[in-house]
Amino acid sequence: MRLLLAIPYYAPAYAFGGSVTVAETVAGGFLAAGHQVTVATTDVLDERTRMPLDTPALPAGAEVVRFRNASHRLAATNGYAPRGLRRWLAFNVRRFDAVLLHDFYSAVSVMSARAAERAGVPYVLQPLGTAGADAERGRPVVKRAFLRLCGERTLDGAAAILHITEHERDDLLGVGAPADRLVRMPLPLDLPQPSAAPRADAPTVVSVGRLHPIKRIDRLIEAVALARASVPDIRLEVAGPGERHQRELEAVAERLGVTGAVRFHGFVSAEDKLALLRRAHVFALLSQAEGLPMAALEAMACATPVVLSEGCHYPEVHDRGGLVTDGSAPATAAALAAVLTDQARRAALGEGARTAAAEFRREAVMPRMVACLDELSARRPAAAPRRARSPSAAR
Hints:
Elements: E1 2-6, H1 18-32, E2 36-42, E3 63-67, H2 72-75, H3 85-92, E4 98-101, H4 107-119, E5 123-125, H5 140-157, E6 160-163, H6 166-174, E7 182-184, E8 204-208, H7 217-227, E9 235-239, H8 243-255, E10 262-266, H9 270-279, E11 282-285, H10 294-301, E12 306-309, E13 322-325, H11 329-340, H12 343-357, H13 362-378, H14 391-394
Parallel strand pairs: 1-2, 1-4, 2-3, 4-5, 5-6, 6-7, 8-9, 8-11, 9-10, 11-12, 12-13
């Protein structure tokens, strides 16, 4: 099978969160199964930087075709406008057996879906928890307008729509996805193995992810300040890009008098992130809205229990691999204290977290995903081949 993976940002644009890692893992899984993979993406690297169009492909063996965004400033805030992508798709999409859309609310997704539709190539949508248009996820008016203008057509034309959890299934039904094309598919993640590395000396809470107000790290800092009444030496380690919001969060820590207990690492490498997750006693995320927090799953794979808000939409983890709260600072403080002060409970939750995360391991998920797209591509009627145009000619 020849697969086209369309996504607005791709490795090594790891500053854009776990979806980049998921896309890279998916590409690697299809390659390992003996299929050909081409990734169509843009040149965004992080909030400030573009990457060269000839940046080496990841993983080895994939073809990655990058298109320059008309405005990097807009692209860094999801305003992707890749020059040349539409033309490249017109000349190349017929050479693929299936198209996988790893995004929904973007020009990359719309262009790729329309090109596949015109060429008679089946496409699969995997929105990674981003399809909901409710107010808690932000920009509801813009998303609803997008749905009316082009999103509903993308949903209607998809051969299959992959969802991670039952909550995401409800989200997709809420925006008009056809129920008969919804397929449950956990995220395929290259999750770490538990390690014998020691935990931190002081009770440590870690939060990993792009710094954004929707993550409500300010509320987590407040919860840590409140938890000091029960855990005086509690510490919070925050890792993730987002310089502007980090300055606001530093001001929150200073106002609450916990500057010495809160450390901001900024963007960290995969190795450093793993070290933080393994050393922590608890992973915490109080997101207002989340498809499924991949960093939480990485922590769980390290046998690190989690404290999550209801907005993380992972209620199954409660009392199995961590605790779920209403996301308020007092409730979160109580949950953190409950885990940090009870070693036996923390160990039991850590083991439960490790077991729950196993469902999302790449080696468990990728055979199912490959089989799903293989079956869909096999239904495609034979068509006369069309000469592909080289990527350089399309840029």
